[in-house]
Specification:
The chain is mostly helical. Helices cover 55% and strands 0% of the residues. The radius of gyration is 27 Å and the shape is elongated. It is found in: Cell membrane.
Amino acid sequence: MTNLGLLIIIGALTACGVYLMLERNLTRMVLGLLLVGNAVNLLILTLGGPSGNPPIIGRQSAGRTTVADPLAQGMILTAIVITMGVAAFTLALIYRMFTLEADDVVDDDAEDARVAQEPPEPVTDGRDEHREGAESLDEDSPAELDALPAGEKS
């Protein structure tokens, strides 16, 4: 049977971590990432089963009758390494942003705001493309796949 108190702690850590990851402050985002990583590690440990004898032949613990699951322990060690690697990378990005802008708050992107204010393009059903005189464009032709328009190629 799983420990209900530990599951409540896992839920609280996850909720706090998700709340922090939704902030615009990058330092809080990293703290949220670390909280969620620790909550996942606790969840794996809790669901790994009860403690028992070491998974080594011939080793016994005092009064244990079952063998501990080594898979959960290995997954937790791997998750710790991955979480610390992602946190180190994110901290490096935060440091770089702080040296460039002297702030670690993510601002609204001007291009995203402009696109959000544009009216949506009208949806066509595709029948207009096959009228007489309408030029049919092949989307798979090399001219359509190039990033530059046809007049700007060198």
